[in-house]
Structure formats: C-alpha cells, structure tokens
User: What shape does this take?
Amino acid sequence: LNTTPLHAYLNRNLDMEQVHQRLRTLPDHALAFNCFDYSDRRNMTFFETLGNLSEWIGPNAGGKRFSLTVEHIMASCAAPLLFPPVLMDGHYYGDGSLRNITPLQSAIRLGADRIINISLSGEAFKRERHETPTLGRIASTLFDGMFLDSLELDSHVLERINTLTERLPEKDRDTKMIDLCRVAPMFDFSLIAQRHRNRFPRTLRYLFGGWITPDMLSYLLFDGEYARELIEYGRKDGESYKDMVEEWLRN
Assistant: This one.
C-alpha cells in the first residue's frame, strides 16, 4: 500500500524539533520507537534522551541512541506485507513487533520502573467460534500473533518475575521489581470495522477477496469515519479506567 499520504500527514502535523527541544529540558525522560531491521534480522530500539543511557546489542535485539525523525515513526508501523519497509542509514526497517518477543525490555533498559501497558487485545476479543476458520480469520490470527500476543505474554512473565522477586529477602534481590499497570479495550474492533465495511476501497476488496473478514478488516481499514469511531470508543474506554490509573499514578 502507498504510505506517502501518511508520511506527508506526519510531516505537516508533527513538529519533531519541538519534540527534541522538549526532551532537552527533561534529562530523565526518553522517547523510543521499535523497528525491525530486515538486514540484520534484529529488533532495534531507536531512542532519544539526554540521560546517561548506554546503547545495547544482543542476538535478537538492540538499542541505538538517535535524533528521532518521522522516518523512525514510519518504520515502526510498516506492517509486513502491507506497508513498504523504510530505508535508514543503509538498512531497511519495518514494524517493531516483528521478532519482538520481549516488547517491555526497551522501556526497562531505558530506566523505567513503572510501565503502563496499553494493550490492543482484551476479553472483548475472546469470542467462542466453532465454525471452520476462513483464510481471513487465519490471516488475522497470524497478525494477532505478530502484533499483540508477545506483549501479553511479556506482561505475564514480568508479573511472575515480580511475584518471585517479592518473595525474596531484599538483601538477596538482584532484580528490581517493575510496577505494571495493564489497560485493555472493552470493545471489539472487528464489530466496529464491520459497520464501516462499505468504506473499504473496491480495488482492495477485489485484491483480498474472501480474506476480508471483520477481524482482518479491523487491520486493513484506514478510513476517517472508522478512525473517529475508534477514537470515541477509546475515549469512553479510557474514562472507565480513569480511577484505576489515577490511583496507580498516585501510589
């Protein structure tokens, strides 16, 4: 798909120089984007901060200090098979969810001891289905595994580590506890996408054919009306979490 309009929109509406200036006034803050390096087959975290944070490199992931640009944003959301990879410094990068089995690691390496995990999957998505899965449903399951499941799994692992660490005497702890607040939607994206099905471009309907199930549509529908409804649902959902999050922040 052509991502040029998104790139132009971000350039018009996002003042990266203001972002840089803001970070220069907040030395204990950092901003980061995760991207997958198709050249090295490694997940990279590009981060910007004035803090004394070191770069890191591992077999499957690494972190580089950078002056962030719109290209980093485009690369971080360049979903495979849908959006073209982005060329930066001689390497092609795509969506940061690829091969990212520990998505919370970047925040922890950047010094976080409290994390708000805003997930895109929740109980509303767990519907019982006994019919034969279609190609579209299988494809959307693959997308879920690529983009969503690792964050949920990593959150469960972190909570388990916290539980085990808490049981140890403080003098024997060599791992710090990370306070995790989890927020998940209470509505189903696919049901909203289905209401906007007629907004899906005709050429893409022809291209994807029977693959376009409501689940798959929620990934592929880039439409203003659909986005506005999602934002409104998200705002209402956020209000329902308000007391819990405020209490977490106070503590």
Observations:
- The mean pLDDT is 87.
- The beta strands are 30-37, 42-49, 56-57, 61-65, 86-88, 91-95, 114-118, 179-183.
- The longest helix spans residues 224-250.
